[in-house]
Design goal:
heterotrimer; A alpha+beta; B alpha+beta; C alpha+beta; A: alpha+beta; Ubiquitin-like (UB roll); DNA polymerase, domain 1; 2 domains; 17% strand; globular; disordered N terminus; C: alpha+beta; Uridine Diphospho-n-acetylenolpyruvylglucosamine Reductase, domain 2; Enolase-like, domain 1; 5-stranded antiparallel sheet; 4-stranded antiparallel sheet; 12 strands; 30% helix; 20% strand; binds flavin-adenine dinucleotide; binds iron/sulfur cluster; binds FE2/S2 (inorganic) cluster
């Protein structure tokens, strides 16, 4: 949640956000997380730390799960950015969102958007991960509620569900 | 409800009623609330550990364009705190600062940048005083007191003696004494603290949306500190990203933000950094324990003598309760004929400690279970046998007058013993691998609330209107533990209707009844009972209406989605029809349910006797399997088997989730989490240095739910969220001892501590050989 | 507190433009993945007025290999390096090191160049502005004492990048571009033992690529840290061991996390011609213990980091020596 000074230079950022192209003038020092939350209104993207330590802010940039709190927005020019909001298709949560709900992969839910995005990147790359691969893929996403047990179960269940 | 102990595992669970919002990103946590029109709040924190404030000049900061309000200690002359007897803290320091990071002033400005510029211009000087960072320094003769009314820097001493300890030790075949210490740890909930305060100068009303676990305390403290009438304050809880005790006490930043909102006549958003979360702290204190136990050859405990010193930080907070819990909860798990407890809560120039999951019980339980294992080893007994030799028989009352009405520990022991194949494997694992076990327990809510008002311990309202929707209104804060879902289930099950018919509105002081809050695992037991009570009242009204409609006797009516006479399907009416009938003449229905703990549950008559008192204890046993790398000191947890007696699992899915989460949190404390300071500055104030375990090294946890059916619990239920935590650290330390033959006396068991212990063992072995050679 | 400082962002298309931009703006900095630099900026360490973003430079983004060895562009992501088939087949230590860096998100963004040019770390330095100010700053940044060794006049902050030791053990060179053109030198020459200024790069130079020689011996990397992911190495060790008929043909051991620079252990030449037996392993442990200089720059004790480094060196050498891949226990170290 940072405000930009009128002094800092802006540039035009054109990106495909959750499937739709859009353009915004963004300050060159603006972080992707602040652009997504404050400019695009996508508050599903969370912030849990002071930079790069928790994974709560994870989004997909060109399909790769990255921490948006240590990514400059301007860097995403002409790239595709996806957030938790973008996984909903025609009002229907996707398979990971459904399995996290049904299997209690989300308790307080604060790590959940980042966790699901990291899992989404995994399943696109590796549709049938084993538990070890799931654990490694999510290892930058801290959760304080679940002990990860039901998160891993949720990802496993989603992988068994046709996309 | 069925008394089949395995039923809990078989019943399907219910996903959280607010789960879809969470997984779709629609859930709005405090930082997500619309605040484009709000000012940005920032706090100026003391860079000094201890000093008298000589000068605080905010005039330059005030002059910055875009600054809308500045507050300092002069804006709030009222102390606050969670315990009415120990309110020795101000939201912004007055006269003296006592730890690095203590709030001194705060700014509200049009944007973050302006607010931070203003902070830079605040001039602050103190006359420095000696600072103490350990209990020992703070208690040393000649140390100046942090608080003038607390000589020796002792916030509270507790001396309890039950039974005859000296006789107990005399009767023992083995007496062993150990010193064990546990590092300070933090809740590290993933959502950083935040709040949004909106003050309307025209109406004089304040609306506060915050991460609080107990909106009621916040409400009271806001009224006190801002000298406002409680009726002009509204406290609302948005979605909350975890609590674990961090947000039970009212936190300084919440009051500060309200002060700012009033000073600026507007809306102020305050979001703390992760570092500030660690400075706000309020978590489990660094603890030194000296424990002496007496045991007979058959494993029976004869006496317990325990001294606990907690380094509590600079202010009282929950300290008195924590130090009382540490002693009181030596009881309630085993049958111990004599107990002596001496507790010391010490002030130090560090961020104040507070309540954290397993409040007060965890570190003493850790020491106790470690010592039990060591004594079992000395006597050649199996760790399970030692626990079995000391079981309670419910119903009973402990020496300190706590009631135990249901007791599933024996079954927990059986479950984890067989699931882990303990008997076949213990002692037969290869070098470096080990098994350890431990037991633990926790209260299902304090039977005596801190703020004694004479009101019921919990109240729930249930509404029914023309639409047939049932709305439960509860002040209980769902912080991710699923309490709103529990209320929905309690109401739906009592009425026999589908859960989709029930909505829950939680924690908005304008509409929901007051609740004592989400702490000490009270919600399921107390709020659950109140919800059932309310639902029963509604049920009576509906049955009466159905009886009229169906022309039958009320006692023959079955309530549910359809109302029937007896078991016959011939005369049945849909729910909507009955609602219509029930609303005739009386209009929309609101019923109130309540729950009160009876006096006999409220603890002993001795001083501090109310702490530890509860309607029922949860019980847990666990087995931990480890792999210790002796070269690098890295301890890997291969597997955990945990069983917990929660009386009855109202929502087995949520109970499993709570057990997994608490066992795992115990693992963090056991292996990697630790808050360290240099000269009062935190060395751990990030999620990189404060090492919350990642998914990579977290083990599989096999959970078993045991249902002992508590006579007073809602459907027989007790707590499930905290009881299993305290068993993990000792089970791990016992497993490490089993793996490499070293008893670790310090938590967390980090790689460096293991390696240092191995080095020390080799040094001693060399010394012994040298001595033998010499003699 | 975590407010981003203001800066302009330049996005050069090629190396020449990048160097020119750096030359033009005295207060500029290169940014690659940004996974370390942006954290530092948020902590108020360093306030560059221009960031020169290297991510659009195509030349930096490739891995090529051939008879002359492998060339890894400085802009190659850590994730791409970890997935690369050549690394997996010939340069195991590099692959293993890449896999152990931070967490998947950092690996997707972070680059080889950024990892090699990583700033040194210290618990008195990697803190917020408020923290460092309250502590009176330190030698490395704005202050005049070192809190780790107050008597001394140098900074002991530790280099903790994981890739450097793996590349060092395999005899890598770095290719550097600057206003005066390009040069190549042994990777070891990129570093000096000074926590305040551990890189020998001059003002306008940037790392373009790392070159690995062909026909490498078998190699492995391992590190100790408290958690299974995210954590920087408390000590990290790479070993490249060539054996011939049961005796050592070549042995290179390199370390990270213990000193202000990653370095190649000296004295391993003496092992050539000897079998990897208990005596050799003990000698290696002694060499490591003697040459590492861990200081109190991490929350774990310096003594521990010394012992752990030695233990890792021993273990990796032993595992490579018996010709098998490091066993399960070794990967558990991570
Ligand atoms: C929570 C966390 C954990 C981490 N854990 C680890 C870990 O375990 N191991 C590890 O090695 N790292 C770790 N890192 C650091 C970092 O993610 C990686 O080292 C990464 O590879 C850095 O690359 P980058 O491209 O992101 O660097 P940047 O942040 O872009 O740059 C780092 C520095 O290198 C300079 N630089 C970048 N490219 C060049 C170039 N081509 N020529 C000259 N100078 C250049 C920059 O100016 C800057 O000073 C961690 C980071 C975080 C936030
Ligand atoms: S080693 Fe000393 S000078 Fe260097 S960063 Fe740490 S405290 Fe500062
Ligand atoms: S908020 Fe981005 S990693 Fe924590
Ligand atoms: S569900 Fe609460 S942090 Fe993961």
């Amino acid at each position: 949640m940072q405000t930009q000074s009128p002094r800092s230079r802006k540039r035009l950022l054109k990106l495909k956000l959750n499937g739709r192209w859009r353009e915004d003038a963004v300050a060159e020092n603006q972080l992707l997380v602040d652009y997504l939350r404050d400019v695009a209104g996508l508050t599903g993207v969370k912030t849990g730390c002071d930079g790069g330590e928790c994974g709560a802010c994870t989004v997909l940039v060109d399909g790769e799960a990255v921490p948006s709190c240590i990514t400059l927005a301007a860097r995403c020019h002409e790239q595709s950015v996806e957030t938790i909001e973008g996984l909903i298709q025609q009002g229907r949560p996707n398979r990971l969102q459904r399995s996290f709900h049904e299997k209690l992969g989300a308790q307080c839910g604060f790590c959940t958007p980042g966790m699901i995005m990291a899992a989404e990147a995994l399943l696109r790359r590796n549709p049938h991960p084993n538990d070890g691969e799931i654990r490694l893929a999510l290892s930058g996403n801290l959760c304080r509620c679940t002990g990860y047990i039901k998160i891993i179960e949720s990802v496993r269940t989603a992988a068994e569900t046709p996309a | 409800m069925s008394a089949d102990p395995t039923a809990g595992a078989k019943r399907p669970g219910v996903p959280l009623i607010d789960g879809i919002e969470k997984v779709t990103g629609r859930a709005r946590y405090t930082a997500d609330l619309m605040h484009a029109d709000a000012l940005v709040g920032r706090i100026f924190r003391s860079p000094f550990s201890h000093g008298e404030i000589v000068r605080l000049d905010v005039s330059k900061a005030r002059a910055v364009e875009g600054v809308a309000g500045i507050v300092t200690g002069t804006d709030c002359p009222h102390g606050y705190g969670v315990l009415p007897v120990a309110m020795n803290e101000y939201p912004l320091a007055r006269g003296r600062v006592r730890y690095r990071g203590e709030p001194v002033a705060a700014v509200a400005a049009i944007d973050a940048k302006t607010a931070e510029q203003a902070l830079e211009l605040i001039e602050f000087e103190v006359r420095e005083l000696p600072a103490y960072y350990t209990s020992e320094e703070a208690r040393a003769p000649g140390a100046i007191p942090l608080h003038d009314d607390k000589p020796g820097n002792l916030e509270r001493e507790v001396h309890h003696h039950f039974g005859d300890v000296s006789r107990g030790f005399a009767e023992a075949d083995l007496v062993r004494e150990e010193r064990i210490s546990c590092a300070e740890i933090n809740h590290a909930q993933i959502e950083p603290h935040a709040c949004l305060a909106d003050y309307d100068p025209m109406s004089g009303r304040l609306t506060m949306q915050s991460v609080s676990q107990v909106g009621y305390y916040l409400h009271l403290m806001l009224a006190r500190c801002l000298e406002m009438d409680t009726s002009r304050i509204r406290v609302v809880k948005p979605f909350i990203g975890g609590g674990f005790g961090a947000r039970v006490e009212v936190l300084n930043f919440e009051i500060v933000t309200a002060l700012l909102a009033r000073a600026a006549s507007g809306k102020v958003m305050m979001q703390l950094t992760r570092e500030e979360n660690f400075l706000t702290h309020r978590a489990r204190p660094q603890t030194d324990i000296r424990l002496k136990l007496g045991m007979r050859r058959d494993g029976r405990i004869t006496a317990c003598d325990c001294e606990v010193v907690q380094r509590g930080g600079a202010y009282a907070g929950y300290g008195i309760v924590t130090i009382l819990y540490a002693g009181a909860l030596l009881q309630g798990l085993y049958d111990i004929p004599s107990i002596k407890y001496d507790g010391y809560r010490v002030y130090a120039n560090l961020p104040p400690c507070g309540a954290m999951r397993g409040h007060g019980s965890v570190n003493t339980r850790h020491a106790f279970e470690c010592l039990l294992d060591r004594m079992a080893r000395d006597l050649g007994l199996d760790p399970f046998a030692v626990r079995r030799a000391n079981l309670l028989r419910a119903p009973t009352r402990t020496l300190n007058d706590l009631m135990v009405n249901s007791y599933g520990l024996e079954e927990c022991l059986e479950r984890v013993e067989s699931a882990s194949k303990w008997r076949a494997r213990i002692g037969k694992l290869p070098r470096g691998k080990g098994l350890g076990m431990a037991c633990s327990h926790y209260v299902s809510g304090a039977a005596k609330p801190i703020h004694w008002t004479g009101e019921p311990h919990a109240a729930v309202n249930v509404r029914l209107d023309f639409d047939g929707g049932i709305t439960a209104l509860t002040g209980a804060a769902d912080i991710g533990q699923g309490s709103s879902t529990m209320v929905a289930i309690a109401v739906a099950e009592t009425l026999g209707v589908s859960i989709e018919r029930v909505r829950v509105v939680a924690a908005d002081s304008m509409v929901t009844p007051k609740d004592n809050g989400a702490y000490s695992s009270r919600i399921t037991f107390m709020v659950g009972n109140a919800a059932i009570d309310a639902a029963r009242k509604l049920k009576a009204i509906l049955i009466e209406a159905a009886a009229r409609k169906l022309e039958a006797r009320p006692e023959d009516i079955e309530c549910g989605e359809a109302f029937r006479v007896g078991h016959g399907a011939q005369s049945s009416l849909p729910f909507a029809e009955i609602v219509k009938e029930a609303l005739v003449d009386r209009g929309p229905i609101t019923v109130s349910g309540a729950f009160t703990c009876p006096p006999e549950a409220q603890g002993g008559k001795h001083r501090g006797g109310a702490v530890g008192s509860t309607m029922g204890f949860s019980y847990a046993a666990q087995v931990v399997e480890v792999d210790v790398d002796e070269a690098t000191g890295v301890v890997r947890v291969d597997k955990v088997w945990a069983a917990l007696d929660c009386g009855h699992a109202i929502n087995p899915l949520a109970v499993e989730g709570q057990i997994e989460g608490s066992v795992w949190m115990g693992m963090g404390q056991a292996l990697s989490e630790e808050t360290r300071y240099v000269e009062g500055l935190p060395l751990h104030a990030s999620l990189l240095e404060y090492r919350v375990p990642t998914s990579a090294e977290s083990p599989a946890i096999e959970v078993q739910i045991v249902e002992s059916h508590d006579p007073y619990g809602p459907f027989g239920a007790k707590e499930a969220s905290e009881g299993a935590l305290a068993g993990f650290p000792p089970a791990l330390v016992n497993a490490v001892a089993n793996a490499i033959g070293i008893d670790m006396d310090e938590l967390p068991v980090t790689p460096d501590r293991i390696v240092e212990a191995l080095v020390e063992r080799r040094r001693r072995a060399r010394l012994a050989t040298a001595q033998r050679a010499a003699s | 507190m975590t407010l981003m400082p203001e800066f302009e962002l330049a996005r050069p298309r090629d190396v020449g433009e990048a160097i020119a931009a750096r030359h033009e703006h005295a207060g500029s900095r290169f940014i690659a993945g940004g996974t370390d630099l942006l954290v530092q900026l948020r902590h108020g360490i360093d306030r560059p007025d221009v960031l020169i973003d290297l991510s659009a430079i195509e030349e930096l983004g490739k891995i090529t290999s051939g008879p002359g060895g492998a060339r890894i562009g400085a802009g190659v992501s850590i994730a791409a390096l970890a997935r690369d088939a050549t690394m997996a087949a010939n340069y195991r230590a590099v692959k293993e090191a890449a896999e152990m860096i931070a967490a998947p998100g950092h690996r997707a963004m972070g680059t080889v160049g950024g990892n090699l040019c990583l700033d040194t770390r210290c618990i008195f330095y990697n803190q917020s502005e408020w923290w460092r100010r309250a502590n009176g700053y330190c030698l490395k940044h704005r202050g005049d004492v070192c809190h780790v060794a107050p008597q001394g006049q140098r900074c002991h902050a530790a280099f903790a990048g994981d890739l450097a030791p793996a590349l060092l053990a395999l005899g890598a060179e770095v290719e550097i571009a600057g206003t005066k053109g390009r040069r190549r030198m042994p990777l070891g020459d990129l570093y000096v033992e000074d926590g305040r200024a551990h890189l020998t790069l001059s003002e306008h130079e940037l790392v373009v690529a790392a070159h690995l020689p062909p026909d490498p011996p078998p190699s492995a990397y391992s590190k100790v840290c408290v958690r299974g992911a995210i954590d920087y190495p408390l000590a990290g060790v790479a070993v490249a061991l060539g054996m011939n008929e049961g005796v050592v043909k070549s042995l290179q051991i390199a370390l990270t996390g213990t000193n202000s620079r990653p370095f190649v252990l000296s004295g391993t030449d003496a092992m050539v011609g000897r079998p990897i037996d208990e005596a050799a392993l003990q000698a290696i442990e002694r060499l490591v213990q003697k040459q590492v200089q861990p200081m109190r720059t991490t929350n774990a004790s310096a003594h521990y980091r010394r012992l752990a480094a030695a233990a890792l060196a021993r273990r990796l050498t032993a595992a490579l020596g018996i010709g098998s891949r490091p066993d399960a226990a070794v990967s558990a170290v991570r």
